[in-house]
Specification:
Blueprint: H1 2-17, E1 22-26, E2 36-37, E3 41-50, E4 55-69, E5 78-83, E6 89-94, E7 111-117, E8 131-136, H2 142-145, E9 147-156, E10 160-161, E11 164-173, H3 177-201
Helix pairs in contact: 1-3
Protein backbone atom coordinates (compact mmCIF):
# COMPACT_ATOMS: atom_id res chain seq x y z
CA UNK A 1 0.00 0.00 0.00
CA UNK A 2 2.85 2.33 0.84
CA UNK A 3 4.48 1.78 -2.57
CA UNK A 4 1.16 2.32 -4.30
CA UNK A 5 0.66 5.55 -2.35
CA UNK A 6 4.10 6.79 -3.34
CA UNK A 7 3.43 5.92 -6.98
CA UNK A 8 0.07 7.69 -7.10
CA UNK A 9 1.43 10.73 -5.29
CA UNK A 10 4.43 10.88 -7.62
CA UNK A 11 2.25 10.70 -10.73
CA UNK A 12 -0.05 13.45 -9.44
CA UNK A 13 2.75 15.76 -8.40
CA UNK A 14 4.62 15.10 -11.64
CA UNK A 15 1.48 15.95 -13.55
CA UNK A 16 1.00 19.19 -11.58
CA UNK A 17 4.57 20.38 -12.01
CA UNK A 18 4.48 19.61 -15.73
CA UNK A 19 1.14 21.25 -16.40
CA UNK A 20 2.05 23.93 -18.90
CA UNK A 21 0.78 27.45 -18.55
CA UNK A 22 -0.53 28.94 -21.79
CA UNK A 23 -0.33 32.45 -23.19
CA UNK A 24 -2.85 33.84 -25.69
CA UNK A 25 -2.20 37.10 -27.53
CA UNK A 26 -4.53 39.25 -29.61
CA UNK A 27 -3.90 42.19 -31.92
CA UNK A 28 -6.44 44.52 -33.52
CA UNK A 29 -7.50 43.45 -37.01
CA UNK A 30 -6.67 45.29 -39.16
CA UNK A 31 -3.90 46.45 -36.85
CA UNK A 32 -3.31 49.75 -38.60
CA UNK A 33 -6.74 51.03 -37.63
CA UNK A 34 -5.56 51.72 -34.10
CA UNK A 35 -2.00 52.94 -34.78
CA UNK A 36 -3.41 56.41 -35.34
CA UNK A 37 -5.85 57.19 -32.51
CA UNK A 38 -7.47 60.26 -34.03
CA UNK A 39 -8.87 62.75 -31.53
CA UNK A 40 -11.98 63.19 -33.70
CA UNK A 41 -12.95 59.55 -33.17
CA UNK A 42 -13.31 56.85 -30.54
CA UNK A 43 -12.54 53.18 -31.10
CA UNK A 44 -14.00 49.78 -30.26
CA UNK A 45 -12.11 46.49 -30.60
CA UNK A 46 -14.10 43.28 -30.14
CA UNK A 47 -12.61 39.82 -29.58
CA UNK A 48 -14.28 36.40 -29.73
CA UNK A 49 -12.53 33.90 -27.44
CA UNK A 50 -13.45 31.07 -25.08
CA UNK A 51 -11.35 29.88 -22.16
CA UNK A 52 -10.17 26.33 -22.95
CA UNK A 53 -11.36 23.55 -20.67
CA UNK A 54 -9.02 22.79 -17.79
CA UNK A 55 -7.51 26.29 -17.70
CA UNK A 56 -7.98 29.35 -15.50
CA UNK A 57 -6.85 32.91 -16.14
CA UNK A 58 -3.82 33.94 -14.06
CA UNK A 59 -3.18 37.35 -15.68
CA UNK A 60 -4.61 39.54 -18.41
CA UNK A 61 -3.32 42.89 -19.66
CA UNK A 62 -3.55 45.35 -22.53
CA UNK A 63 -0.35 46.93 -23.86
CA UNK A 64 0.11 49.98 -26.07
CA UNK A 65 3.60 50.50 -27.48
CA UNK A 66 5.46 53.74 -28.19
CA UNK A 67 2.46 55.95 -27.71
CA UNK A 68 2.82 59.69 -28.22
CA UNK A 69 0.52 62.67 -28.10
CA UNK A 70 0.27 64.84 -31.20
CA UNK A 71 0.94 68.05 -29.35
CA UNK A 72 0.78 69.50 -25.86
CA UNK A 73 -2.71 70.78 -25.09
CA UNK A 74 -4.74 71.32 -21.95
CA UNK A 75 -7.01 68.39 -21.12
CA UNK A 76 -5.29 65.78 -23.31
CA UNK A 77 -6.27 62.29 -22.15
CA UNK A 78 -6.76 58.76 -23.47
CA UNK A 79 -9.48 56.63 -21.85
CA UNK A 80 -8.93 52.85 -21.95
CA UNK A 81 -11.97 50.70 -21.17
CA UNK A 82 -12.69 46.97 -20.93
CA UNK A 83 -16.01 46.03 -22.55
CA UNK A 84 -18.11 43.04 -21.54
CA UNK A 85 -19.32 42.61 -25.13
CA UNK A 86 -18.31 44.13 -28.47
CA UNK A 87 -18.70 43.13 -32.14
CA UNK A 88 -15.57 41.33 -33.36
CA UNK A 89 -13.01 43.50 -35.12
CA UNK A 90 -12.17 47.20 -34.99
CA UNK A 91 -14.76 49.95 -35.37
CA UNK A 92 -14.34 53.71 -35.09
CA UNK A 93 -16.98 56.36 -34.42
CA UNK A 94 -17.01 60.12 -34.97
CA UNK A 95 -17.27 62.33 -31.89
CA UNK A 96 -15.61 65.54 -33.14
CA UNK A 97 -13.14 65.49 -30.23
CA UNK A 98 -15.86 65.83 -27.64
CA UNK A 99 -14.50 65.80 -24.10
CA UNK A 100 -15.03 62.85 -21.80
CA UNK A 101 -15.20 59.09 -22.13
CA UNK A 102 -17.74 57.79 -24.64
CA UNK A 103 -17.60 54.40 -22.84
CA UNK A 104 -18.18 55.99 -19.42
CA UNK A 105 -18.86 53.13 -16.95
CA UNK A 106 -21.10 55.37 -14.85
CA UNK A 107 -23.64 55.32 -17.69
CA UNK A 108 -22.57 52.10 -19.43
CA UNK A 109 -22.67 48.93 -17.29
CA UNK A 110 -21.00 47.11 -20.20
CA UNK A 111 -17.75 49.01 -19.57
CA UNK A 112 -15.00 49.14 -16.95
CA UNK A 113 -12.35 51.87 -16.98
CA UNK A 114 -8.94 50.17 -17.01
CA UNK A 115 -7.11 53.48 -16.84
CA UNK A 116 -6.19 56.72 -18.53
CA UNK A 117 -3.05 58.16 -20.08
CA UNK A 118 -1.77 61.68 -20.57
CA UNK A 119 1.53 62.26 -22.38
CA UNK A 120 3.55 64.75 -20.35
CA UNK A 121 7.09 63.62 -21.20
CA UNK A 122 7.41 64.08 -24.96
CA UNK A 123 4.14 65.29 -26.49
CA UNK A 124 5.30 66.07 -30.02
CA UNK A 125 4.54 63.03 -32.14
CA UNK A 126 7.95 61.37 -31.73
CA UNK A 127 6.74 57.76 -31.95
CA UNK A 128 10.21 56.26 -31.49
CA UNK A 129 10.45 57.98 -28.13
CA UNK A 130 6.96 57.24 -26.90
CA UNK A 131 5.76 55.50 -23.75
CA UNK A 132 4.91 51.82 -23.33
CA UNK A 133 1.66 51.35 -21.44
CA UNK A 134 0.26 48.34 -19.62
CA UNK A 135 -3.30 48.09 -18.28
CA UNK A 136 -4.03 45.06 -16.08
CA UNK A 137 -7.50 43.50 -16.06
CA UNK A 138 -8.60 42.96 -12.43
CA UNK A 139 -9.39 39.35 -11.49
CA UNK A 140 -12.97 40.40 -10.72
CA UNK A 141 -13.43 40.98 -14.48
CA UNK A 142 -11.90 37.74 -15.76
CA UNK A 143 -15.43 36.49 -16.37
CA UNK A 144 -15.88 39.18 -19.01
CA UNK A 145 -12.93 37.93 -21.07
CA UNK A 146 -13.65 34.18 -20.83
CA UNK A 147 -17.30 33.89 -21.86
CA UNK A 148 -16.86 33.99 -25.63
CA UNK A 149 -16.81 37.70 -26.40
CA UNK A 150 -15.34 40.88 -24.93
CA UNK A 151 -13.63 44.02 -26.13
CA UNK A 152 -11.91 47.32 -25.49
CA UNK A 153 -13.06 50.88 -25.92
CA UNK A 154 -10.43 53.58 -26.49
CA UNK A 155 -11.42 57.21 -26.52
CA UNK A 156 -8.58 59.67 -27.29
CA UNK A 157 -9.22 63.33 -26.53
CA UNK A 158 -6.06 64.16 -28.42
CA UNK A 159 -4.17 62.53 -31.31
CA UNK A 160 -2.27 59.51 -29.94
CA UNK A 161 0.11 57.79 -32.32
CA UNK A 162 1.47 54.37 -31.35
CA UNK A 163 3.34 51.46 -32.91
CA UNK A 164 1.02 48.65 -31.85
CA UNK A 165 -1.57 47.35 -29.40
CA UNK A 166 -1.64 43.86 -27.92
CA UNK A 167 -3.84 42.04 -25.41
CA UNK A 168 -2.42 39.08 -23.51
CA UNK A 169 -4.15 36.39 -21.46
CA UNK A 170 -2.02 34.06 -19.33
CA UNK A 171 -3.57 30.86 -17.99
CA UNK A 172 -2.70 28.05 -15.62
CA UNK A 173 -3.91 24.46 -15.60
CA UNK A 174 -6.73 23.53 -13.25
CA UNK A 175 -6.58 19.97 -11.81
CA UNK A 176 -9.52 17.83 -12.88
CA UNK A 177 -11.58 16.03 -10.20
CA UNK A 178 -10.09 12.66 -11.17
CA UNK A 179 -6.57 13.99 -10.63
CA UNK A 180 -7.52 15.38 -7.24
CA UNK A 181 -8.98 11.97 -6.33
CA UNK A 182 -5.71 10.27 -7.27
CA UNK A 183 -3.79 12.76 -5.17
CA UNK A 184 -6.05 12.04 -2.22
CA UNK A 185 -5.56 8.28 -2.63
CA UNK A 186 -1.82 8.80 -2.75
CA UNK A 187 -1.85 10.75 0.50
CA UNK A 188 -4.06 8.11 2.14
CA UNK A 189 -1.65 5.41 0.98
CA UNK A 190 1.30 7.28 2.44
CA UNK A 191 -0.52 7.84 5.73
CA UNK A 192 -1.44 4.13 5.95
CA UNK A 193 2.12 3.08 5.20
CA UNK A 194 3.47 5.41 7.86
CA UNK A 195 1.09 4.04 10.50
CA UNK A 196 2.10 0.50 9.62
CA UNK A 197 5.80 1.42 9.85
CA UNK A 198 5.23 3.04 13.27
CA UNK A 199 3.49 -0.11 14.55
CA UNK A 200 6.37 -2.33 13.44
CA UNK A 201 8.87 0.07 15.03
CA UNK A 202 7.03 -0.17 18.35
Amino acid sequence: MKRTGFLILFLCLFGFTNAFANTYTFNPTPSGDMWDLDHYRYYQWGINWNLPSGEAVSAAYLQIFNINDWTAETGDILYVNLLNTAPAGVSSFWDNQSGGNNFNPSTNPNAYLLGTYTDTSDPYGNVSGGDNLKFDVPAAYYGWITDGNFGFGLDPDCHYYNSGIKFTIETRSVPEPATMLLLGLGLIGLAGGRRRFNKIAE
